[in-house]
Amino acid sequence: MPGGVIMTDVNVLERLERIIRSDEGVPPERAAELSVLLDEPPIQDVVALVERSSATRAAVVLRLLSRRRAIEVFDALDAAHQADLIDALGDNSVYEFFAELDPDDRVSLLDELPAEIAERLMRTLDDTERDITGVVLGYPKGSVGRRMSPEVPHIYEDLTVDEALEKLRRVANEAETIYTLPIISRDRLLVGVVSLRDLFTAEGSTGLVELMSKPVFANAHDDEEETARWFLPLDMLAMPVVDDSERLVGMLTFDDAVDIVEEADSEDTARSGAHEPLQQPYLSTPLVKIVKSRIVWLLVLAVSALLTVQVLDTFEDTLAAAVVLSLFIPLLTGTGGNTGNQAATTVTRALALGDVRPRDVVSVAWREIRVGMLLGAVLGSIGFLLATVVYGLNIGIVIGSTLLMVCTFSATVGGVMPIIAKKVGADPAVFSNPFISTLSDATGLIIYFLIAKSVMGL
């Protein structure tokens, strides 16, 4: 990198990436120069550079950054990616980064680490930060309490606007958000909320009781995904979180709710595609972790596909008597699988958004029966005409009837299975596309051969 040449951010990042990813690594004599250059690009570009690098190389980038900038970049990474960096960074950097994280982000990182490392990191915190982090750790995984910020200014209902603003000035640097303020009684019961805008525009002598509005809040034990999904459409910056006695314990911020929904959607998308979510950027994910995310699903699907083999073996004589039937197997199994997948994807998404609840299973089943029948009628009519022209009336009847029944069955099963999964506490996405495809294949073949035997007298 020639000295004295001013480069654009893009060129800086491209050349830094080439140097960092080279076999030689970063020459010691150029570390100071690269450190200065890394302070030039926008923070999001540096985060992207770290996300595209292995743990070892990402650690090099973080060490080259200034302290403030390194903490910002580390904080912006996914918890799984942060965990991968722990060994590469060395103790001093890890302790510093860990101490600067918000309590909820610390807990997310601790969840990704082995117990002995998590305990070691907790011991590096001062008593106050350890206690605050312990509050979040005390709630079960998947709950709102696990994602809330417990650092909330205590603004009491008997204060005036001037008194509240004075208190905010003293504690603003410690709180994660001050734009939406919960108002509490002296025994910490949540009684209302007020916005910072309302405080700034009100008379200083006005009591908070006159300004506060009825609070929208969540219980710390509520499911994080369900809460985040109903909270986000309200367009609020933050929401109070209370315990079972309705005492204030924290705040759920808008950005944390967005993260929760994004993680849930990524998980659903991954599982509907028959693999586990990586939980960190693709290029920085170790190869072994990628293999682990896929291999279990492939083994499960391979075993479940034996059902299809067993069905074909059972109807071997039927196939031998009318070899032409084998030509339509890919069409019928593919149509059944696709129909089931469409229904499952639609209902899984509706469950996530709260449009469908487990008690709606009968309504969903009845709707999907009708949708499947209409789809099957259209596809079956086309299949009947084409098969009759080429292979004769009997084959046409078999194909048309099979498509009608397969579409009806697959749509119904695809719509109902995610709800059953939700009902028993499983992830609806797990019961989605891969399993429904296998079930539709096996069942579709049974329907196909039974109709063929009946119509053709085999």
TrEMBL record:
<feature type="transmembrane region" description="Helical">
    <location>
        <begin position="295"/>
        <end position="312"/>
    </location>
</feature>
<comment type="similarity">
    <text>Belongs to the SLC41A transporter family.</text>
</comment>
<feature type="transmembrane region" description="Helical">
    <location>
        <begin position="433"/>
        <end position="451"/>
    </location>
</feature>
<dbReference type="InterPro" id="IPR038076">
    <property type="entry name" value="MgtE_N_sf"/>
</dbReference>
<feature type="transmembrane region" description="Helical">
    <location>
        <begin position="318"/>
        <end position="335"/>
    </location>
</feature>
<dbReference type="InterPro" id="IPR006667">
    <property type="entry name" value="SLC41_membr_dom"/>
</dbReference>
<keyword id="KW-0479">Metal-binding</keyword>
<dbReference type="InterPro" id="IPR036739">
    <property type="entry name" value="SLC41_membr_dom_sf"/>
</dbReference>
<keyword id="KW-0129">CBS domain</keyword>
<dbReference type="InterPro" id="IPR006668">
    <property type="entry name" value="Mg_transptr_MgtE_intracell_dom"/>
</dbReference>
<keyword id="KW-0472">Membrane</keyword>
<dbReference type="InterPro" id="IPR046342">
    <property type="entry name" value="CBS_dom_sf"/>
</dbReference>
<keyword id="KW-0812">Transmembrane</keyword>
<keyword id="KW-1133">Transmembrane helix</keyword>
<dbReference type="InterPro" id="IPR000644">
    <property type="entry name" value="CBS_dom"/>
</dbReference>
<dbReference type="Pfam" id="PF01769">
    <property type="entry name" value="MgtE"/>
</dbReference>
<keyword id="KW-0460">Magnesium</keyword>
<feature type="domain" description="CBS">
    <location>
        <begin position="148"/>
        <end position="211"/>
    </location>
</feature>
<comment type="function">
    <text>Acts as a magnesium transporter.</text>
</comment>
<protein>
    <recommendedName>
        <fullName>Magnesium transporter MgtE</fullName>
    </recommendedName>
</protein>
<dbReference type="Pfam" id="PF00571">
    <property type="entry name" value="CBS"/>
</dbReference>
<dbReference type="GO" id="GO:0015095">
    <property type="term" value="F:magnesium ion transmembrane transporter activity"/>
</dbReference>
<dbReference type="GO" id="GO:0005886">
    <property type="term" value="C:plasma membrane"/>
</dbReference>
<keyword id="KW-0813">Transport</keyword>
<keyword id="KW-1003">Cell membrane</keyword>
<comment type="subunit">
    <text>Homodimer.</text>
</comment>
<dbReference type="Pfam" id="PF03448">
    <property type="entry name" value="MgtE_N"/>
</dbReference>
<feature type="transmembrane region" description="Helical">
    <location>
        <begin position="397"/>
        <end position="421"/>
    </location>
</feature>
<dbReference type="InterPro" id="IPR006669">
    <property type="entry name" value="MgtE_transporter"/>
</dbReference>
<feature type="transmembrane region" description="Helical">
    <location>
        <begin position="371"/>
        <end position="391"/>
    </location>
</feature>
<dbReference type="GO" id="GO:0046872">
    <property type="term" value="F:metal ion binding"/>
</dbReference>
